[in-house]
Design brief:
This protein is mostly beta strands. 14% of the residues lie in helices and 53% in strands. Strands 1-2-3-4-5-6 form a six-stranded antiparallel beta sheet. Strand 2 and strand 3 form a beta hairpin. The two termini are 27 Å apart. The mean pLDDT is 95.
């Protein structure tokens, strides 16, 4: 009913400007039956300096060619998230899944001139068929 998750996305050769991303999470199963599963997940998301600069920073050259001012994003936590999902199984083949995620930017990411909204809400719904 409770799990701790950790993940990392590491750059490949030739992607040195992208950087590395890390996440740490806590998942809680609120309901787990034969037909239904409801889960809530909390997460903290961080990046090294290259990752945060790539996605939230503005270089001198970019500032000269855009409306954004120069901004150096340092390494650290860039956001926190909470996700809720529900899966319902109709039979051995058919199921539906819905999920909603709220992500709140933090630190340099929230102060970046590229950031227009500090909170993002995303959702998904799917109908699934398993062979």
């Amino acid at each position: 009913w409770l799990s701790v998750t950790a993940a990392g996305e590491f750059l490949l050769e030739g992607q040195q400007d992208r950087g590395n991303q890390y996440s740490l999470g806590l998942d809680v199963d609120l309901l787990d039956t034969k037909q239904d599963t409801i889960t809530v997940a909390l997460g903290a998301h961080a990046g090294d300096r290259n990752y945060n600069q790539t996605y939230f920073g503005v270089t001198h050259a970019q500032a000269q060619n855009s409306r954004f001012s120069r901004f150096d994003a340092d390494s650290g936590i860039y956001g926190y998230s909470i996700t809720g999902d529900w899966s319902h199984r109709f039979d051995e083949h058919w199921s539906v899944m819905t999920a909603v995620r709220v992500m709140r930017l933090a630190g340099d990411a929230s102060n970046s001139p590229l950031t227009e909204e500090k909170t993002a809400i995303t959702g998904i719904a799917s109908i699934n068929y398993s062979f």
